[in-house]
C-alpha cells in the first residue's frame, strides 16, 4: 500500500533537490504536484485541501534554517504536516487503574474485527498483560467459533456466555475478574452498512461494559467509504481510536490516511497482514516517512541540523567547485559526516541514494584507515599531495599503521575524485547540472581504500 504515492513523492522531491532558492511560484507548483499525488492516492478532498493549505503557508513563510537547503526545508514541512494529518504523536491504549481495562471493537462486516481482536490480544500478552477475548458477535453463526480458534492460536482464553450480545459482554467482564485477567477485548457483530440496529446494539454493549477504549476497525481497502463509515461511527458511538486493517493490500489507501483528520480520532493500530503477528501500533511519523519514500530523511535532516556546520560545508563545496579541495578538507568532511552517527545509517538516510544501495554495507574500518593515513601527513602534504615522494609514503604508512600500497591507493582515489569534481563543476558552470546529491557517473569506490567505500 502507498507504493505509488511514495513513488510520486520521491519524484517530486528528486526534482526539488536540484533547485536552489524557491520562489512563491515554485512553491505553488510543488503544492499542486503534491495535491495531485494525494488525490490520486484517494486521500479525501477535504483532507488534501487542509494539508496543502498548511504546507503552502509554512513554505511561503520561509522558516529559515541555515543548515537546510530550500528543498530540505520543504521536505521537512511536508513531512511534519503529513505526520499531523496522520495524528501527530502515537497514542497508547488507556489503562484502567481498576482492572480490567475494556477495549470494544466495532466496524463493518469483514473489516477485520475478529482478526484484530486476536492480534491485539496477542500483542497485549507479549506486552506482559493478561487479556481475555469476548465473543459478542452472535449475529453470524460461526463468529464465536472463529474467535475461539484464534484465541487458542494466540493462547488467550475466550469467553462467550449469554443469550444476547449485552449479556455476553457483561459476563465477559465478570469472567475476567474471576480469572484475574486485566484486559478484556470485546469483538462485536458487523453489518454490511451502517444501520440503526447495529448502532443500537453497539450503544447497549458500550453502556453495559463502559469501555476504556472503543476502537473502530477500518478496512484500508474500502476507499472513500471508509471515511463515511468512520464519520458515522464517531458520531454515534464514542469512538476513541481507529484500527486500520489490510494495510498490506495493494489499494491506493489514501482514504485510510484521511480517517484521523475527518473523525478527529487517532489511528492506534495497523493490521499489516493475515497472520496474527502482522499487527503493530501505528506511528504517524514512521508512516509519514514511509509514504514520503525517502528512507528516514527527517532523521537525517534533524541530525544535519544538530551536527553539520553549514558554513564549513559551504566552504568545502566552494573549494570542490574551484578544484581546490584538499586531503585536509576531505578529512574534515569525513569527520563531520561521522559526527552524525554510523555511516551505515547515514547512507540509508541520504536522499538521492538509490533504493538498492540503502541496505548495503559501509566499511567503517576502511574509513578509520583513511583517517589515519591523512592524519599521518603534514599540512603541506595534505594540501599538495604531489610532494609525497617514496620516502614520505613509507613514513606516512608507518605513522598510520598501514602499508605504502594503502597510501598509494588513497592518493590515487583522491586524485580521481578531485578530477571528477572539477569535471563536474565545469558541467555545473554551464548550468546543466547543479551540485546536489551524488554527481552523475559517481563511482562510490573512488572514495575508499582498496575495497572502496563498500556502498
Ligand atoms: N491481508 C490482510 N487480511 C486481513 C487483515 N485483517 C483481517 N484480514 C482478513 O479479512 C477477512 C475478514 O476478517 P475478520 O476478522 O473475520 O473480519 P470481521 O470484521 O470480524 O468480519 P465480520 O465478523 O464478518 O463482520 C479475513 O479473511 C481476515 O483474514 C490484514 O491486516 N491483512
Ligand atoms: Mg468478526
Low-confidence region ranges: 349-360, 427-455
Decide which structural class fits the backbone.
alpha/beta
* Biggest beta sheet attributes: 8 strands, mixed
What percentage of the residues does DSSP assign to strands (E)? 5-15%
CATH class of the largest domain: Alpha Beta
Tell me what the CATH architecture of the largest domain is: 3-Layer(aba) Sandwich
- The CATH topology of the largest domain, please? Rossmann fold
Assign the CATH superfamily of the largest domain: P-loop containing nucleotide triphosphate hydrolases
The domain count comes to 3
Ligands and ions found = guanosine-5'-triphosphate, magnesium ion
How many strands?
8
Cα radius of gyration in angstroms: 29 Å
Element order: H for helix, E for strand: HHHHEHEHEHEHEHEHEEHHHHHHHHH
SS summary, helix count:
19
Widest sheet, order of strands: 3-2-4-1-5-6-7-8
Residue-averaged pLDDT, rounded? 80
Q: Provide the helix percentage.
A: 40-55%
Can you tell me about this structure?
The protein is α/β, with parallel strands linked by helices and 455 residues long. The protein folds into 3 domains: 3-86, SRP54, nucleotide-binding domain (Four Helix Bundle (Hemerythrin (Met), subunit A), Up-down Bundle); 101-282, Rossmann fold (3-Layer(aba) Sandwich), CATH 3.40.50.300; 308-447, 434 Repressor (Amino-terminal Domain), CATH 1.10.260. 55% of the residues lie in helices and 8% in strands. The chain contains 19 helices and 8 strands. It has helices at 3-17, 24-40, 45-60, 70-86, 113-126, 143-154, 165-179, 196-209, 224-236, 254-263, 284-292, 297-307, 310-322, 327-339, 343-349, 364-375, 379-383, 390-400, 404-429, and strands spanning 101-106, 131-135, 158-159, 183-187, 213-219, 241-245, 267-271, 279-281. The chain has an 8-stranded mixed sheet, sandwiched between helices. Helix 2 packs antiparallel against helix 3, helix 4 (70-86) packs across helix 11 and helix 9 (224-236) packs parallel to helix 10 (254-263). The longest helix has 26 residues, at 404-429. The radius of gyration is 29 Å and the shape is elongated. The two termini are 28 Å apart. The model is unreliable at 349-360 and 427-455 (pLDDT under 50). The protein binds guanosine-5'-triphosphate and magnesium ion. Residues 107, 109-115, 137, 140, 143, 190, 245-246, 248, 271-274, 278 line the site of guanosine-5'-triphosphate (GTP).
Amino acid at each position: 500500500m502507498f507504493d505509488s504515492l511514495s513513488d510520486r513523492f520521491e519524484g517530486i522531491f528528486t526534482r526539488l533537490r536540484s533547485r536552489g532558492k524557491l520562489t512563491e511560484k515554485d512553491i505553488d507548483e510543488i503544492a499542486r504536484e503534491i495535491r495531485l499525488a494525494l488525490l490520486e492516492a484517494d486521500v479525501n478532498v477535504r483532507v488534501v485541501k487542509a494539508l496543502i493549505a498548511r504546507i503552502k503557508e509554512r513554505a511561503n513563510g520561509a522558516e529559515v534554517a541555515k543548515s537546510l537547503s530550500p528543498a530540505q526545508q520543504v521536505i521537512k514541512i511536508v513531512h511534519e504536516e503529513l505526520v499531523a494529518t496522520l495524528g501527530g504523536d502515537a497514542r497508547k491504549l488507556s489503562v484502567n487503574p481498576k482492572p480490567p481495562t475494556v477495549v470494544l471493537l466495532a466496524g463493518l462486516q469483514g473489516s477485520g474485527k475478529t482478526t484484530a481482536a486476536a492480534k491485539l490480544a496477542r500483542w497485549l500478552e507479549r506486552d506482559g498483560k493478561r487479556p481475555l477475548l469476548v465473543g459478542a458477535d452472535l449475529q453470524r453463526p460461526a463468529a464465536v467459533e472463529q474467535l475461539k480458534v484464534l484465541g487458542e492460536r494466540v493462547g488467550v482464553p475466550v469467553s462467550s456466555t449469554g443469550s444476547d450480545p449485552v449479556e455476553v459482554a457483561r459476563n465477559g467482564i465478570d469472567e475476567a475478574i474471576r480469572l484475574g485477567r486485566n484486559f478484556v477485548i470485546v469483538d462485536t457483530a458487523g453489518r454490511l452498512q451502517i444501520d440503526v440496529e447495529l448502532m443500537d446494539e453497539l450503544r447497549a454493549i458500550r453502556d453495559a461494559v463502559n469501555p476504556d477504549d472503543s476502537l473502530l476497525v477500518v478496512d484500508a481497502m474500502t476507499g472513500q467509504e471508509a471515511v463515511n463509515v468512520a464519520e458515522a461511527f464517531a458520531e454515534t458511538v464514542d469512538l476513541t481510536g481507529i484500527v486500520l486493517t489490510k494495510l498490506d493490500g495493494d489499494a491506493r489507501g489514501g482514504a485510510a490516511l484521511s480517517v484521523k483528520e475527518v473523525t478527529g480520532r487517532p489511528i492506534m493500530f495497523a493490521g499489516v497482514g493475515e497472520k496474527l503477528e502482522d499487527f503493530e501500533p501505528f506511528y504517524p511519523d514512521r508512516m509519514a516517512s514511509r509514504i514520503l519514500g525517502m528512507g528516514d530523511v527527517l532523521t537525517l535532516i534533524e541530525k544535519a541540523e544538530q551536527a553539520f556546520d553549514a558554513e564549513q560545508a559551504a566552504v568545502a563545496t566552494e573549494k570542490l567547485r574551484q578544484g581546490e579541495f584538499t586531503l585536509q578538507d576531505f578529512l574534515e568532511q569525513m569527520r563531520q559526516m561521522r559526527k552524525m552517527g554510523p555511516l551505515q545509517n547515514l547512507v540509508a538516510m541520504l536522499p538521492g541514494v538509490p533504493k538498492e544501495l540503502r541496505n548495503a554495507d559501509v566499511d567503517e574500518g576502511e574509513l578509520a584507515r583513511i583517517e589515519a593515513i591523512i592524519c599521518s601527513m603534514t599540512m603541506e602534504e595534505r594540501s599538495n599531495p604531489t610532494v609525497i615522494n617514496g620516502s614520505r609514503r613509507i613514513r606516512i604508512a608507518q605513522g598510520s599503521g598501514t602499508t605504502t600500497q594503502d597510501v598509494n591507493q588513497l592518493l590515487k582515489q583522491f586524485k580521481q575524485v578531485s578530477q571528477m569534481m572539477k569535471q563536474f563543476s565545469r558541467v555545473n558552470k554551464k548550468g546543466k547540472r547543479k551540485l546536489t546529491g551524488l554527481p552523475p557517473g559517481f563511482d562510490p569506490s573512488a572514495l575508499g581504500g582498496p575495497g572502496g567505500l563498500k556502498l
